[in-house]
Fold these 2 entries.
Entry 1:
Amino acid sequence: MRAISAMLGFGLVVLVITGCNSTRWGFLSHEDKLTKPDNSQLPTVAALVDYMNDNAGRVKSIQVSALEVTAAQGVAERVNLHGKMVAEKPRGFRMSLDGPLGFSQWADLGSNNDEFWFWIKPQPGQKVPSYQYYCSYKDLDKGVAFIPIPFQPDWIMEAMGLGLYGPAERYQIEADEKTQTIRLIEKSRSPQGSPVRKVIVMHRREKKAPEPQITHYLLIDDSTNQEICSAHITQTMVDKATGAILPRKLDLHWPQENATLSLVMDKTAVNVPIPPRAFVRTPLSGVQSYNLASRQPDAAVQAIQGFGPK
């Protein structure tokens, strides 16, 4: 379950920071609308970025009261979890997951403007201590933190429609005539400093919810051209009050570990007030905190607290 724990610990805090802005092509200007398959003209990068930012601008916060998560590694290991999640711009995120049949808390993950953290319940036979891992964004930006996976927490607010895109100069555009898709490609670096490509894949023809317009967020190793991880949006939903389009079903893949994380988000409320304490790292009973920058645990063992709206 090591890879599944890592997928939960960062894939979920990457999932909120990756934006599904899925079916508002009518907001493109007349000359920049999507073209028919027999027309080679493409919309401009600026038009696509404006389209994505339009959707993201409608959403300030998200509260998911019914979250179902299936974590799997290969075909042998699989666990079904359920819980709740809240997210708020710019970096507010909190997720609490309970184990199968609601037995005991299984995971607690969060982020605020200063830091991110995660805790996964110890698994049977696990010899490594179960810490509450945390890291400041300042240390992450300095490159001094030890991050055990090759993707960044900040890459999740985009998949939930809370990110901001641009400037347009960051991206290159490519068209795949075979699949009738468009790709926006951005050069970046992994937490370990390796060159990577962040790729947003979208249908070229207009789609309507629940079918997604944007289908994939890919992270590609620039030196090997191999996929490092990906988020695949399979179903979207529309918030009636704001018109914002958000993911309802999402799959995260980590090919190196043969790990998959599937999420179904129901009872979702947009732009509702969220208590500030939801985004505060709270102690866990009998669990030490571990600083990923100093690479050592804190001295004190802590006491438990809850979070979020009841």
Entry 2:
Amino acid sequence: MHRSLAAARWRATALLASIVGAAASAYLLVEYVTGQPGLCLTGSGCDLVRASAFAYPLGIPTPLFGLVFYLAAAWVVLRTMDSKRIAGIAPGTALLALAVAGAIASMILTALEAFVIEAFCTWCLVQAGASLVLLVAAVGLPRHDPGDPDERHSRRARQQASQALEGERRSLLMTARLGGGGAVLAVGALLAMGATGGTPGPSPEGSSLAPAGNPHLGAGPVEVVEFADFQCPGCATVAPILADLAESNAMTLVFRYFPLDSIHANADASARATEAAHQQGRFWEMSAAIYARQGAWKDLSSTDADAFFRSVAADVGLDVEAWQAAYESDEVAAAVDVDRQAAEGMGLTGTPTLFIDGRLYSGSLSEDAIRAAVAASAPAS
């Protein structure tokens, strides 16, 4: 009886893990298919993962694989109540094999996010957690056929075992219904929150959102203001997209500094380095070089970072002595601080943050999505 109770608990755990994984996958799949921005607790990580080369293997959105996997896992969990084998394999063994494959796939995807994309998707992490819980439950679940007559020699024992299995089956089905219904409601609520958050609202800064003294690029009819941190991987990804649109005169790009000092040790120094270059009219060359070499300076000590930025200034053809004086000046520090205070005053918490024609943009950071948003804001010809 004790072993049966333990098995029931492991089944319930595996089923709930499958439901959570399926819900996260379904939520991501809707985002991938519709392009609708959603709730992301890891800053711009969700959009960066979705914009990566790993988001659509063979042209198929990755969350679709996750949804199929977790639905299959839920089906196998329910089958562990029966004695019928799956393709000649006991259901418990089939569940273990499936869980191992899912855990390995999740570890590979998480490693890609950590070391290749350098950004984490909130809901991918939820799926990874669900896959690990599923694996633990599958390991704990007995892998003998439930219908085998072990410890059930008497008629009464068999009847009791049958009644216990029927009670657990009803309990699991109720768990599936409640969990599935809750998952549907949760996914719907998250999508509604994403839709609300993705609707740009008026800028609280009004006409002061794009100061004339800040770096400008392009002469397009749509004004895009970017608050960015040079140590932010997302900003490095978005920068060439914005530059291409500005250089094609599809928009006018205005850059504003928002160094996130609490998480990026060299964010303020890199902002001062580019502002010092701006004083020589070379902001865009300096910013491109700093973004391109982000991996080389992001973990340096402050002294080494100072020397590194000086070498970059020399590489882009600046008057290094004038640059050095500006880099260390109160004037440059104040210019960076003005933008930082403006961002904090608007309640901004992450980078990159874009305003398109004065309205906050919360959509995907992929090239197609940004290009479409800019085109939608362009005046009719």
